Amino acid sequence: MKKLDGVQYLPQGRTQTMWLRIPAEAGPDRRLPAILIIPGGGWGNHFGNKYIATAEKLAGWGYVVAVIDYQIVSDQARGVNYLRNMSDSFPQCLHDCKTAVRFLRHNADKYGIDPQKIGVLGSSAGGHLAAMTAVTQAKDGLEPANDGLGDVSSAVQACVSYYGAHDWSTWGFKRGAVLSDDDRQDQVRGSTVKWVDKYDPPMLIIHGDRDRTVPVAQSRALAAKLKEVGATFEYWEVPGVDHGSCLNGKIKGDEDRVRAFFDKWLKGVKK
Q1: Which residue range forms the structural domain that includes residue 44?
Q2: What confidence tens digit (pLDDT) does each residue in 84-109 have?
Q3: CB-based burial of residue 153 (10 Å sphere; 0-12 exposed, 13-18 middle, 19+ buried)?
Q4: How many domains does the chain contain in total?
Q5: pTM for the whole thing?
Q6: Which CATH number does the domain housing residue 140 bear?
């Protein structure tokens, strides 16, 4: 396995890091599908390096895997509430995720990636951003404009979202709180449920029904919207599970389920 750390995927002037794990067999003559991991952290922490073990697990499944850091909340806005955390860094946090996808596709030859087979995986804040990356397209006005990658597509072909926040009109702030104009705008723009349509890539949604941080109602709302529009998705509500990360051993069977999902949609493996 090839390990590349400290890869700068953003244009000069901003520094965000990508960690890459590339199976030995990946190369020009054997292109592998890729998975982008978007870490959690309440839209306010850089935890990319904590997902390296997860990246190496997925690389062992035969994927080129990248983990990123992305724009987080400023010190001035930090800790007001989750909506403020998200809104303060939005849409740049989403732009960074999309630029990372574009970077992988643009460098497909270099890293041995099949540019038509890129998936995205995230938990908590990363689960929100993974889903947003999957359901928004150029027509939605949320694409990065100045990342130096021209018209390279940010589209992904599969998405796994753990514990995500998907409807900011119902969560992320205290009832009666005074919201800024930016907060109110991003309640809409940052809500996954707003952008869903039947053409979205297949999505696997995982959420514990005892989540005390992001209510399970958030993922239920996304699943209901995907069902309403006729999109392809799987919804797994896990009994007795609180908030957490992805593929960390706390959900029995999630490795098998996530692997089967990505293998189906990125490798064409039928089981």
Answers
A1: 2-267
A2: 999 999 999 999 999 999 999 999 99
A3: middle
A4: 1
A5: 0.96
A6: 3.40.50.1820
